[in-house]
Inverse folding.
């Protein structure tokens, strides 16, 4: 239990629930770092918070990305490509 | 802090893997709202999509990093009023927040919410309006737009049917309660949404209510990647205007001086696909009437374009 959890009367259970939503993906996004203007639009709109900013670059963490294509549709420079996931 | 820095730097208060539909803009809304609210928050999520996808918990685990409750569909606001009193009695402060769908807000939960508004209990109530009971199979609610196909307002093979009544103008109903803060918001206008949550957090003397319009991909029939663009079109066609009101002081926060034709919005949504030009024009007329009414409430302000 962390400090925040201890503040409350009953414990919050056994921990964080997390579904393996990365498994749902049928297509996967990839940012072309050459043409990316570093605007961050993809980070703002990714429903699963899968886009991260590191040293001013934007990168996609695929662990929980559902492959919705929102980032590719919203990117003003069209530099995110969606490609089919290999069958798992 | 600008919107991008806030979203890039703050901790995500929601589990990374919640089972909302692929591309769901309510999942996006919840993550953004919780990043703004931060860890000192007590969250209540009544039955509905966001309850169902694992945020309130599953198998002794919880999908949020803050205390989260699963109240009934009809008592969310009054339960939070009690939590506020308990916190006051203990001399503690926190954001006491509801994140509820339209069913739990405009239908079943309305009495409790109206009571909280009138009594002036200090809570933040956020409604994600996807126009129906989506996680139980797309039944209509009193927020559902006229003409919509839902599982309880079916459409015949020759294109007749759909909901016969207009949806309630619910944020306006809340504004008429004279509460300290009411706002409408959209997942397509993130800086506006963030600022409104921050304004709600500043309220000390009663209810802050935010109504977010969330087009439902699965229930309305929208392509996943168009999740944000359809939400944006609702604003650009004046179908869902973005405004805020402080005790009836109204202000349009995203003026739409040149609205796009309503077809730009409706044609992207399958639940309207059976509607003829007249029915679509009716929806456009409703949007114009409501926008004109809103402008009349903003009279005298310079941003009432
Ligand atoms: S495909 Fe969807 S979930 Fe994956 S990074 Fe893009 S917006 Fe996020
Ligand atoms: S939206 Fe496109 S241009 Fe902007 S940071 Fe993301 S990938 Fe780069």
């Amino acid at each position: 239990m962390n400090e925040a959890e201890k503040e409350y009367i009953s414990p919050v259970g056994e921990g964080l629930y997390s579904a393996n939503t990365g498994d749902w993906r049928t297509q996967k996004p990839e940012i072309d770092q050459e043409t990316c203007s570093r605007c961050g639009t993809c980070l703002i709109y990714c429903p699963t918070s899968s886009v991260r900013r590191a040293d001013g670059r934007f990168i996609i963490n695929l662990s929980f990305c559902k492959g919705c294509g929102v980032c590719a549709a919203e990117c003003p420079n069209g530099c995110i490509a969606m490609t089919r996931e290999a069958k798992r | 802090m600008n919107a991008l820095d806030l979203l890039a730097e703050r901790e995500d208060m929601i589990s990374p893997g919640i089972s909302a539909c692929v591309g769901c803009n309510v999942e996006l809304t919840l993550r953004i709202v919780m990043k703004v609210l931060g860890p000192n928050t007590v969250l209540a999520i009544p039955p509905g999509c966001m309850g169902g996808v694992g945020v309130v918990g599953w198998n002794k685990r919880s999908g949020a990093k803050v205390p989260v409750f699963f109240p009934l569909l009809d008592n969310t606001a009054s339960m939070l009023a009690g939590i506020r009193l308990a916190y006051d009695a203990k001399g503690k402060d926190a954001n006491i927040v509801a994140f509820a769908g339209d069913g739990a807000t405009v239908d079943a939960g309305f009495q409790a919410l109206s009571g909280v508004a009138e009594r002036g209990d200090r809570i933040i109530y956020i409604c994600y309006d996807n126009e129906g009971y989506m996680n139980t199979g797309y039944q209509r609610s009193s927020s559902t737009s006229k003409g919509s196909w839902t599982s309880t307002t079916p459409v015949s093979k020759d294109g007749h049917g759909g909901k016969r009544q207009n949806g309630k103008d619910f944020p306006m109903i809340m504004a008429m309660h004279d509460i300290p803060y009411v706002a409408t918001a959209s997942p397509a206008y993130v800086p506006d949404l963030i600022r409104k949550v921050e304004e709600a957090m500043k309220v000390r003397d009663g209810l802050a209510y935010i109504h977010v319009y969330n087009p439902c991909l699965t229930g309305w029939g929208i392509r996943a990647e168009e999740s944000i663009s359809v939400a944006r079109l609702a604003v650009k066609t004046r179908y869902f205007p973005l405004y805020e009101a402080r005790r009836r002081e109204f202000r349009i926060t995203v003026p739409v001086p040149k609205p796009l034709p309503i077809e730009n919005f409706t044609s992207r949504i399958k639940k309207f696909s059976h509607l003829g030009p007249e029915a679509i024009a009716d929806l456009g007329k409703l949007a114009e009437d409501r926008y004109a009414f809103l402008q009349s409430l903003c009279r005298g302000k310079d941003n009432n374009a």
